[in-house]
Request: fold
Amino acid sequence: MARDARTNRRIRAREVRVIGAEGEQLGILSIDQALARAQEAGMDLVEVSPMAKPPVCKIMDYGKFKYEAKKKANEARKKQVVVRLKEVKLRPKTEEHDYEFKVNNIRRFLSDGDKARVTIMFRGREITHKDIGQRILSEVMTDLKDIAVMEQAPRMEGRQMFMILAPNPKLKAQAQAQARASVKPEQPRPPAPAPKPPAEGKPAEPAPAAATKP
Reply:
C-alpha cells in the first residue's frame, strides 16, 4: 500500500473491487456503493491496489492503520543495529605506549559492535618504507585476533595505508552463549520440616494460656 493512499472521495475510479473490514470479498461495486458500505461500517474506503483493474479498495479505519504502521516502523528502527566506522591513526614511528593505547581503543570499538579503520600516515620520505606500515597493521591484527576479523586487507590510499576491522560474529555469539550458561537456575527452597509427633504415651504439651489481668 502506498504511504499516502487515496481514500474515500479522493478515489478516482468509477468501479472498485472491495474487501470488507474482516477481509471478506464484497465484489466489484460502484464507487458510490463502496463508499456507502464504508460509511455503514463507520470506516474509510482505502485504495490499496490502484494499478489493478479495477482498483482494489479495502474498508478500514485508516487513521488507526496509519498509527499502527508508524508504530511498527519505529519499533523496527529501534531494533536496527547501527554499525559505525571508527578511525584510529598511527605513524610508522609510533611509540610503544601510544601503540598500546590505540590498540585498546580499537578493542573497545569492536566490543561495542563498531568497525575500525586502522590508518598508517606517512610523511615525507616515510612513504618509501611501506613495509613498516604493513608490519604495524599486521601486529594490530595479531593483537586483536581474539575479537576482530579483517573486513578489508591493507591497501594504499594516497599517502595513507589502511585496513578495516570488524567484530568477530562467531566469538561474539560464543561469549553470549557462555554468559547464558554461567547463569545458574534458581534452586527451589526445600520444604519446611514437619513438626515431630509426641512420644508414645506422652501427651502433647498444652499451649500456654493467655495471661489474664488481675
The mean pLDDT is 84. The beta strands are 15-19, 25-30, 44-49, 56-60, 85-90, 115-121, 148-157, 160-167.
